[in-house]
Amino acid sequence: MAEASPLYQTYMRAPLRFERGEGVWLVTETGERYLDFAAGIAVNSLGHAHPHLVEALKNQADKLWHLSNLYDVPGQEKLAERLTSATFADKVFFTNSGAEALECAIKTARRYHFARGNPERFHIITFEGAFHGRTIATIAAGGQAKYLEGFGPKAAGFDQVPFGDLDAVKAAITDETAAILIEPVQGEGGIRVVPNEFLRALRDICDENGLLLILDEVQSGVGRTGKLFAHEWAGITPDIMAVAKGIGGGFPLGACLATDEAAAGMKAGTHGTTYGGNPLAMAVGNAVLDVVLADGFLRNVQDVALVLRQGLAALKDRYPDVIEDIRGEGLMLGIKAACPSADLLLAMRGEHMLSVSAGDNVIRLLPPLTLTAEEAREGLRRIERAAESLTAANEKKSLQG
Q1: Is 289:82 a contact under the CB 8 Å cutoff?
Q2: Dihedral, CA atoms, 382, 190, 148, 125, nearest 10 degrees?
Q3: Measured between alpha carbons, how far is 241 from 255 in angstroms, rounded to an integer?
Q4: Full DSSP string of 308-377
Q5: What is the rounded CA–CA span in Å between residue 36 and residue 137?
Q6: What is the pLDDT at residue 2?
Q7: Helix (H, G, I), strand (E, B), or coil: what is residue 211?
Q8: How many CA atoms lie within 13 A of 239 on its CB side?
Q9: Taking the chain, what is the end-to-end CA distance rounded to the nearest angstrom?
């Protein structure tokens, strides 16, 4: 009988043990190579062992690891200046994760209204299918029963409406509403893209009602959709934005970005973090921006994404019993399966290709942003073989039945 693991049993882990990574490839302890279209769930934005990131981390490791926020951290100033100059924001608070960035965003929105003499305005409108993290507040914001079950009363202050229903948004606004929180592309929810006109309408509603618009770009940000941030496709700006995953390229790093006005209530002592903004994270975050903000990088993401998207559309036509639809933007793509998505996930793994499941029977394709056109085509070949194997298995079942 196998010895019980000392780890919490909170994950359904695949029986794979990776020893090292090289760009878009992962290598197991036994030397098997896997094409990684999961990228740590959109985290390894520049692939595995990117030389510029490795160099930045090693150089910083020889100097300082941790200081706490009792002192100035020059890397924070540098990264914050680069993020604010490239976005709508004026202020940045650094965290270790996406959930922490969302917690900061929620607190910033509530504090904004409190500082203006309206403490009753703490409710935030969210959307069905959302995923904002695993803390008590963020599971309440996401509103999904499977994440709320067993953790006591749902935290107050989150009013959920159906995805894409503008009338429901308007009807949910009360004198207690502080903000609207939305992912421009729902990741966990099944790669559901929020239409540009819907985001523009939300911006207008917030302006008309004195609300703050909070965007969760933890998964869709830092070049994932071919723009630095996904909301840029809609031509709007939020008041507050949560960022993580790709900004650290694999190192734990998140950030809450806000305008001066939105962040005005966040005075000394109102929020804090022990590890957030540590020198190691700042060195890596700056190195990620060196690459992502370089001329032509985002254009290349768009070009390679087009190769992948067109190839997936062709596979959809050829294997309608496996692939129902293709969704997403840039290199944040989803295959809505016509069969159980778990079957497609396993078939792709059988072809030594990694992907990520999501809601609505969807498989997420989240490769490193450094993906080349040839690597995209290799991924398509492996998806094709997986679809072919599932089709053949279904035909065999039909004949036997």
Answers
A1: yes
A2: 150
A3: 8
A4: HHHHHHHHHHH-TTTEEEEEEETTEEEEEESS-HHHHHHHHHHTTEE-EEETTTEEEE---TT--HHHHH
A5: 32
A6: 56
A7: coil
A8: 27
A9: 37
Residue 4, judged by CB atoms within 10 A of its CB (0-12, 13-18, 19+), counts as exposed
* Phi, psi angles (nearest 5°) of residue 5: -75, 140
Task: Tell me the pLDDT tens digit for each residue of 86-96.
Answer: 999 999 999 99
Cβ contact 281:70 at 8 Å: no
Contact 335, 323 (CB under 8 A): yes
Pairwise CA distance, residues 263 & 282, whole Å: 21
Q: What is the mean pLDDT of residues 368-393?
A: 97
Q: Residues 346, 357: contact at Cβ < 8 Å?
A: no
The DSSP secondary-structure symbol of 194 reads P
pLDDT for the residue numbered 401 = 64
**pLDDT tens-digit profile of 250-261?**
999 999 999 999
The DSSP 8-state label assigned to residue 23 in this structure reads B
At 327 the three-state DSSP class reads: strand
Give dist(CA 158, CA 175) in Å, integer: 14
Residue 179 pairs in a beta bridge with 124, 212
Helices (H), 135-229: 136-142, 145-148, 166-172, 196-209
Q: Could you give the C-alpha distances from 370 to 50, 235, 255, 300, 358, in angstroms and in order? A: 10, 25, 22, 8, 23
In the sheet that 33-36 helps form, which strands lie side by side, from edge to edge? 18-22, 25-28, 33-36, 353-354
Q: Is the pLDDT of residue 397 over 80?
A: no
Per the structure block, which two tokens stand in for 387? 């679809």
**Phi, psi of 30, rounded to the nearest 5 degrees:** -95, 5
pLDDT digits (tens, 9 = 90+) for 290-335: 999 999 999 999 999 999 999 999 999 999 999 999 999 999 999 9
Would you mind telling me the total number of residues written for the chain in this entry? 401
Mean pLDDT of all residues in 213-242: 98
Burial class for 294, CB neighbours closer than 10 Å (0-12, 13-18, 19+): exposed
pLDDT at residue 306, as a whole number: 98
Going by their DSSP bridges, the two strands 212-216 and 240-243 should be labelled as: parallel
**pLDDT tens digit string along 169-206?**
999 999 999 999 999 999 999 999 999 999 999 999 99
Q: Which of 368, 318, 355 is nearest to 338 (CA)?
A: 318
Quick: pLDDT tens for 29-73: 999 999 999 999 999 999 999 999 999 999 999 999 999 999 999
Q: Could you give the strand order of the β-sheet that contains 177-182, starting from the edge strand earlier in sequence?
A: 91-95, 254-258, 240-243, 212-216, 177-182, 123-127, 158-161
Residue 390's SS3 state is helix
